[in-house]
Amino acid sequence: MRQQLLRIAKEFGTPCYVYFADRLDLQASKLKAAVPAGWKIYYAMKANPHPEIVQAFRRHGFGIEIASGGELAAALAAGVPAREIVFAGPGKTDKELAAALAAGIHMLHAESFGELQRIDGIAHRLGKIAGVALRVNPLHTPGQAGLQMGGASRQFGIDAEQLTADKLAGLEQFDHVEVKGVHVYAASQVLDKSEFLAHARQAFASAGRLANHVGLEYVNIGGGIGIPYAKSEQEFDTAGLASALDTISKGQALGDAQVCLESGRYLAGPAGFFLAQVVDTKTSRGKNYAILDGGMNCFLRPALTKTAHPSFNLLERGPAETILTGPLCTPLDVLGTLDTIALPGDTIAFGQAGAYGFTESMPLFLSHDLPCEVLVEHGPARVITARRPGHGFAQPLP
After folding, report:
1. How far apart are alpha carbons 138 and 179 in whole angstroms?
2. 90, 218, 255, 297: most buried by Cβ count inside 10 Å?
3. Contact present, 342 and 313 (Cβ < 8 Å)
4. Is 144 found in the same domain as 109?
5. pLDDT tens track for 9-34
């Protein structure tokens, strides 16, 4: 792996992202085997929206979950049929909702009663009937999770306790909305299987309550299966998961509703590496530093979440603690710590970088060139996103 990444760095330059198609396929196959037969898997496009990544998961039969009008346009441009798209996330604008309805996507996830009302009005103007799933903010979330997305006061979803019988009966007032689904997504980066199953029980209980009031066709239990970043973390144990989920789902009277699970990080994360070259090294008051040609402008996640990705020098060097920083004029630009020496010209690789990598970053800060993206597929490596200058985005009006 080191030699292959080193060849890619020399051929295509740094900073760059490298994705391995065989690992994308492996993660997809592992997830399919981990859920009951007949369940639908949606790839959460926010994790990595590159068309090549999206198409890789489409070949496995996965649907696509989007969270913006831009992702809708990107998914359609990547050849995803509208009927294979569901739209989640708070703050959907009227323009985005109209575009989704006009395209004929499978399901809109309503994050509030106000959004539900706006969907009804827009669908009325377009002469459409909108298929909607209510996103529920559950009372409890997995205790071990990297990001809590529910369980407290949140911008995500409708609080479970607000979905009273009277409120659900009032859904009949909407002439152009057909509420036929539920979406419950409580947390991200969950590594404990028992915590994930506890969330699944909550999600199916919410679905069961909703089934008493609407014709339930769609049950999305969210996702949140994580990947290990720290050396102390273990991979999510999928053994027996399909059987456990099947038992939980059959404990509710859901009829013929399609059960769904979404995933982004688990599918794309392990398939990617971020590569950056050491430009300079220094010692400052007893600490060793290696300054790289790409920092949080290319790879924000370590600084944003204070999560160190696994990192290593592509050349064999002796042991030494080395702080890895980018080239930006801010003390926030720290990507992690290496346990070996790093010398100018060395290339450093950061693993688990296939999800929430470049598109979560801040590429225009300081106008450095943007990283290229490379896909390794059936042996050869090829550029799937060319390196672009970072200085041409802010231009004066003519």
Report:
1. 18
2. 297
3. yes
4. yes
5. 999 999 999 999 999 999 999 999 99
Distance of CA 303 to the CA centre of its chain: 18
**pLDDT recorded at residue 148:** 46
Please confirm whether the linkage preceding 331 is cis (ω < 30° from 0): no
Contact predicate 34/388, CB 8 Å = no
Structure tokens at 196: 């994930």
- pLDDT tops 50 at residue 387: yes
Q: Are residues 176 and 305 in the same domain?
A: no
CA-to-CA dists, residue 57 to 33, 111, 352, 383, angstroms: 15, 26, 18, 19
371, with CB counted inside 10 A (0-12, 13-18, 19+), is buried
CA geometry: angle at 352 spanning 314 and 85, to 5°?
A: 140
What is d(CA 360, CA 1) in angstroms, rounded to the nearest whole number?
26
Q: From CA 167, how far away is CA 185, in angstroms rounded?
A: 21
Please tell me the predicted confidence (pLDDT) of residue 214: 84
Structure tokens at 192: 């404990």
Which structure tokens are listed for 199?
A: 């969330």
Q: Are 374 and 13 in contact (CB under 8 A)?
A: no
More confident residue, 142 or 108: 108
The domain in which residue 318 lies consists of 2-16+270-385
Q: What is the pLDDT of residues 191-213, one digit of tens each?
A: 999 989 988 888 888 888 888 78
Same domain, 202 and 97: yes
How confident is the model over 239-277, as pLDDT tens digits?
999 999 999 998 887 888 999 999 999 999 999 999 999
Tally the residues of the chain.
398
